[in-house]
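Repro case for the chain-ordering regression, as requested:
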Amino acid sequence: MARPRLHDEALRVRLLDEAGRLLSEEGPAALSMRRLAKDVGTSTTAVYSLYGSKSALVRAVFLEAFGRFGARLDAVPLSGDPLTDLLRLGVAYRESALADPHLYSVMFGQVIPEFEPEPEDTEASLATMNPLVDAVRTALARGLLIPAPAETIAVALWAQAHGLVSLELGGHMPDGFDL
Amino acid sequence: MARPRLHDEALRVRLLDEAGRLLSEEGPAALSMRRLAKDVGTSTTAVYSLYGSKSALVRAVFLEAFGRFGARLDAVPLSGDPLTDLLRLGVAYRESALADPHLYSVMFGQVIPEFEPEPEDTEASLATMNPLVDAVRTALARGLLIPAPAETIAVALWAQAHGLVSLELGGHMPDGFDL
DNA sequence: CCTCGATCCATAACGACGTTTCAGAACCGG
DNA sequence: CCGGTTCTGAAACGTCGTTATGGATCGAGG
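-- result from build under test --
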């Protein structure tokens, strides 16, 4: 009945990839709908017919970023000693954040005014904590930690890592500070 | 020789106050140069002749916010027991952040794309830590903490507080979580 | 094979943003 | 009262997110 569509799933993926690249390599200011469309060789109409809004586009990047982030934490090799694993998870957390600071701030900062994560989106961020909760449970079972709800300890450790990384990325560290 | 200026220090203060109010009550999106000028009853030219740029305006708000934040921490009554004081400082930290989340995110998030703090600006943020460092030193002197550089412990505690508050404000907490 | 009508998409437009320019209003010394 | 200097509001520029539109494009019916 009509022309075949160019604004298809393949283009959706290319847009998502380029959006991630722009964000990661040039920062939040570089990610504009016009720029994105031009870099991918299409028009803003394409982005709007595939995503609907900048907010929805960034949400896709947000979920993608949490996916990769979680994968990196899942990939941390377990040593058998849960306390060692907790330390390794913390190091991996920091390395993942420093490897791509802009994506990290899309996940945890509100760097792009158009996008604010919905409650449903935060489930993706909570899933990131799973390896952490597992290690805490193991440590508790072996009596290596002061007894307390595993989730409480996990959140406290997560906050510690996030706080350190966040201060480091924000430049709020004393000169030449090294933990 | 010429007309007396209306764009004077009094107006500068009124602009700063209104900018803080807009930010605090309506969030970062509400703070535009046009809106600010209109609310104060002047023109954008005034803002530019007094501040030069949005970046500089927000920097002024940033420093003001850190001033108030530091004052709240300085005002925490000391109990004599440094460990109690550390806990109180943490509680005061959280209360200050929750009392004005938008200002907190101007201080520690990059909520306004136009403004990124310079190295000199972070000195203001480090000064906020002084009461914390003092309490840590006292605790160390009394053998209440495992020996380590006071600054290291202080930064770790600060990061813990900042991490918890930051996750809480960002909604990255499990449902009904209470430490 | 050609036309018709349905479908899609790039272009251009709209309002708001940060920032800058500019013409005239406002003032003081003479 | 007037000249010249200083100041200021209004308008202009380019960019942003988003939306409307008119022409281009193709499959089906004759």
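Ordering looks correct now. The longest helix of chain B spans residues 54-74.
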